[in-house]
Amino acid sequence: MRAIVCLAVAVAALLALYPQAALGQVRAKAAVTCVAAGEVLEYDCTIKLANARSGEPLSGLTVSVGADMPSMPGLHNLRPVKATEQAEKGVYKVRLELEMHGDWAVQIDLSGAVRDRVIATLRFEDVEVKDVKPPSGRR
After folding, report:
1. pTM surpassing 0.90?
2. Is 12 strand, coil or helix?
3. According to DSSP H, which parts of 1-133 are helical?
4. Are 66 and 91 in contact (CB under 8 A)?
5. pLDDT tens profile 60-80
6. Per residue in 94-108, is it b (16+ CB within 10 Å) or e — as a string?
7. Which of 20, 41, 77, 90 could form a disulfide with 68 if both were Cys (CB 3.0 to 4.6 A apart)?
């Protein structure tokens, strides 16, 4: 009996720490690609959103995209811009107008049927954009 009580307490503690597990909340994953848009420091980005567990595309969401430079917190940031959903399920497009080249933490906020934030760190250069590290679905 004591073992059952201990197990119940442990499960309750885990659910308190991770409430999304208790609710079965969908977590998102994002594949972000950006290309220079013609003007200096302007980039057209395509974001492919999917359910992190099932891989199913996430559509019908409100998606806003902001960014900041991790190396200079508070100095260089981009106010969130609304992304436009495309005809292909789970695909969103947005234009980012950055302040300078370098590493940027791109914050993708989802609202609607799925509420989540995915962060992708990208290196924006004159002619190309590279992944710095894989996107994270955690704040």
Report:
1. no
2. helix
3. 2-17, 19-23
4. no
5. 999 999 999 998 877 888 899
6. bebebeeebebbbbb
7. 77
